[in-house]
Design brief:
With 529 residues, the protein is an alpha/beta fold. The protein folds into three domains: 10-75, Chemotaxis Receptor Methyltransferase Cher, domain 1 (Orthogonal Bundle); 84-274, Rossmann fold (3-Layer(aba) Sandwich); 319-345 and 352-527, Alpha Horseshoe (Serine Threonine Protein Phosphatase 5, Tetratricopeptide repeat). Helix content is 47%, strand content 10%. A hairpin with a 2-residue loop joins strand 4 and strand 5.
């Protein structure tokens, strides 16, 4: 296939889109079929398949291959000038200062767009650089992606009119020329960008010299990596950046309690990571982990087995019962419960934190979590709503706010908030887990099982997901299915369990607490008729 975009029939793309929606809850509309073609162009040669219909048949029976395809489908989701607050900081401060510094030192300004997908990000950077008066010979803008088909599409620089819809007419006229099926990047702009394939998970970057880069953009990429991979990648980024160089991540990505050798700084309302000018030696030992860490999509081998249960029927249950183990053992085991009181209207509207404090998003989220632990849900909701007004795609904030809406009976608001998280990160396991828990709390068991099933398709080893599915079956008095799911929860604890992004009070989150609750519940069910 030569690295180009694969030609696939509309019928095959519709079938693939239906399969992704059914298994993973990933909704791909016809205007997003381009990303499906790119993903197929990458995976099919690796599998030794040349016929798209044959590959589709394999996907239906091979869940591991379908999981491997998913990140490639979602990587294609990008847009020009994505994240306006970050691009405002790039236009007004970051790029002008980097350009001035490079000129003073008689060298090129060096930028890496790591995970460039189909090219919207590097071309956006190039437009800003042209508008700042930078010549192409003054710029080394390197754009890379693991998906070689996406890189080739980016190099060609052809985009539909829809993908340019949010761009100003002035920029469109200056930097693009009309073609038969949309627009093509003008040769002027192409001179500023060099495209290449690059796997960010490799042990070293042979094409990057130490302390050679002024700026790295790696946005909406590391959310698909596990923690060891993220930390190793950050070490390599840190080495590649010049002292004082900057790293930009996506709004939903954070290094809080993940990696501590960068400094977080605020630039014109955007929070970015800076390599310290006096770089300290790495601290010994393992950094602590918490629920603020990034969601990870893990592709397991076929040796991971999960017992399946029958379909479920609607029923209702209280919140207390949602998180308890079987009633037969309530006196024997201390079970996690959530005490929720109806929110009281405050005498005065909660005061918004002063912007002069310039708290980072993580600090504001921490403050909201402390309010939740005190039982002050009203103030926590207000704090999180203000955080999301400033940082609309903050994943931890969205998940925690959705949980608060659920806990206070605002089920529709919870659904909408989790939908926003999924729109931002289509493979967000936590949005499915917490969405399923919200439906379970509301007594909508068909919806709960559907959401939890999608979470477990994305991450089959997630023990808390199996535990919650077992809770669904218990509410339906389907004891055999509940037994299978409790056994699955215990079995998956042989794999390392990561903390979930977002915060849900008193939800079992350690391997020990999940194991204890599942074993007692299973013991009670084994004694049942």
């Amino acid at each position: 296939m030569g690295g180009g975009v694969l030609t696939v029939t509309s019928r095959a793309l519709q079938q693939l889109a239906s399969l992704l929606l059914e298994r993973a809850g990933l909704k791909i509309t016809p205007d997003g079929y381009h990303s499906l073609r790119l993903a197929l162009s990458t995976r099919m040669p690796l599998m030794g398949v040349v016929d798209p219909e044959e590959y589709l048949r394999r996907l239906r029976s091979d869940e591991n291959e379908l999981r491997a395809l998913l990140p490639l489908v979602t990587v294609g989701h990008t847009e020009f000038f994505r994240d306006p607050k970050q691009f405002q900081a790039l236009e007004q401060r970051i790029l002008p200062e980097a350009l001035q510094r490079a000129r003073r030192e008689y060298r090129k300004v060096s930028i890496w767009s790591a995970g460039c997908a189909t090219g919207e990000e590097p071309y956006s950077l190039a437009m800003v650089l042209v508008e700042l008066g930078a010549l192409s010979i003054e710029v080394d803008l390197w754009a890379t992606d693991l998906n070689v088909a996406a890189v080739e599409a980016a190099r060609q620089g052809r985009f539909s009119a829809r993908r340019l819809a949010g761009m100003s007419q002035e920029r469109r006229n200056r930097f693009f020329r009309p073609v038969e099926d949309g627009y093509e990047v003008a040769p002027l702009l192409k001179d500023y960008v060099r495209f290449d394939g690059q796997n960010l998970a490799v042990a070293s970057f042979d094409k990057v010299q130490p302390e050679s880069l002024d700026l790295i953009l790696c946005r909406n990429v590391i959310i698909y990596f596990d923690l060891p991979t993220i930390r190793a990648l950050m070490d390599r980024f840190l080495t590649a950046l010049r002292p004082g160089g900057l790293l930009l991540l996506g709004y939903s990505e954070s290094l809080f309690k993940v990696y501590d050798r960068f400094e977080m700084v605020e630039v014109d309302g955007a929070f970015v990571y800076r390599r310290p000018k006096d770089l300290a030696e790495p601290r010994p030992g393992i950094r602590p982990m918490s629920f603020f860490e990034l969601p990870v999509i893990q592709t397991q081998s076929s040796s991971t087995t999960v017992e399946e249960g029958p379909a479920v029927l609607p029923a209702t249950r209280s919140l207390r019962e949602t998180l308890e183990v079987s009633p037969a053992v309530q006196r024997t085991v201390e079970v996690p419960t959530v005490k929720v009181e109806p929110p009281r209207e405050p005498k005065s509207k909660p005061r918004r934190p002063s912007r002069s404090l310039k708290l980072s998003p993580e600090e504001r989220l921490n403050a909201a979590v402390r309010m939740i632990e005190r039982g002050d849900f009203v103030s926590a909701v207000s704090t999180l709503e203000h955080l999301l007004a400033d940082e609309p795609g903050h994943l931890d904030g969205l998940l925690t706010l959705g949980n608060l809406y659920s806990l206070t009976g605002r089920v529709e608001d919870a659904r909408e908030t989790f939908a926003q998280a999924i729109a931002r990160e289509p493979l967000c396991v936590e949005a499915r887990v917490f969405g399923g828990l919200a439906e379970l709390q509301a007594g909508h068991l068909v919806a709960a099982r559907s959401e939890l099933g999608k979470a477990l398709f994305l991450e089959p080893t997630l023990a808390i997901g199996h535990y919650l599915v077992a809770q669904v079956h218990e509410r339906l008095v389907d004891h055999e299915a509940a037994r299978r799911s409790y056994r699955n929860a215990i079995s998956q604890l042989r794999f390392s369990q990561r903390p979930l992004a977002g915060h849900y009070p008193d939800l079992p989150d350690s391997a020990e607490s999940i194991s204890r609750a599942a074993r007692y519940a299973l013991a009670a069910l084994e004694e049942a008729p």
